[in-house]
Design goal:
The chain has a single domain, classed as Serine Threonine Protein Phosphatase 5, Tetratricopeptide repeat, CATH 1.25.40. The protein is 51% helix and 0% strand. The protein is built from eight helices and no strands. The longest helix is centred in the last third of the chain and has 15 residues. Keywords: ANK repeat, Repeat. This is Ankyrin.
C-alpha cells in the first residue's frame, strides 16, 4: 500500500502518481488539480488496478471518497490486481459505511484468494491481535475490530 507524506506540489512536480498520493493524503484540491493537469478522469486506475476510491478508502479519507463517488462512471466495486475492492482496502468503519450504505458496494465480492472484505479483515485482526502484548491497546487494532463488527452485522 501507499505511505505518503502530505506535501505541496506544483505543476512541475505533478506526475501519474500524484492523484493517488493526493487521494491517500486527503488532499482534495491537489487531487482535482492533478487530474485536470494530467487530463485524467476520476475513474483512473494505476498499474496495479488501484483506483482513487481504493486509495481514499485505504486511509479513511472521507471527503475525497465522497467527491470521487460524486463523479461519473465510478465503479464502486472495482478490483485491483489482487481482486480487492475498495471495501477490502478499508481499515476503518467510517469508510466502509460510506461504501456500503451510500455507494451500495457489493460487500460479498471475493478477491483473488476467494475472500470477502470481512474475511480479509478478520484475518488481519487475528494477525494483529496475536502480535500485541497482553493489555496493550492499539488504535489500529480497535479500528479494525470495529470494522469487523460492522461487516459482520451486514445481512
Amino acid at each position: 500500500m501507499f505511505a505518503f507524506s502530505n506535501q505541496q506540489q506544483n505543476s512541475e512536480e505533478i506526475d501519474s502518481s500524484t492523484p493517488f498520493v493526493a487521494a491517500s493524503d486527503g488532499d482534495l484540491a491537489l487531487l482535482q488539480k492533478s487530474l485536470q493537469h494530467l487530463s485524467l478522469p476520476a475513474t483512473v486506475a494505476d498499474s496495479n488496478g488501484l483506483t482513487l476510491l481504493h486509495s481514499a478508502a485505504s486511509y479513511n479519507q472521507i471527503e475525497v471518497m465522497r467527491w470521487v463517488l460524486s463523479q461519473p462512471n465510478i465503479d464502486v466495486n472495482a478490483k485491483d490486481s489482487d481482486g480487492d475492492t475498495p471495501l477490502h482496502h478499508c481499515d476503518q468503519m467510517s469508510a466502509a459505511k460510506i461504501l456500503v450504505e451510500e455507494a451500495k458496494v457489493d460487500y460479498r465480492i471475493k478477491n483473488s484468494d476467494g475472500q470477502t472484505a470481512l474475511q480479509v479483515k478478520e484475518e488481519e485482526a487475528n494477525e494483529m491481535g496475536g502480535e500485541m502484548d497482553d493489555g496493550e491497546e492499539d488504535e489500529d487494532f480497535k479500528n479494525l475490530e470495529e470494522l469487523v463488527g460492522y461487516l459482520r452485522s451486514l445481512p
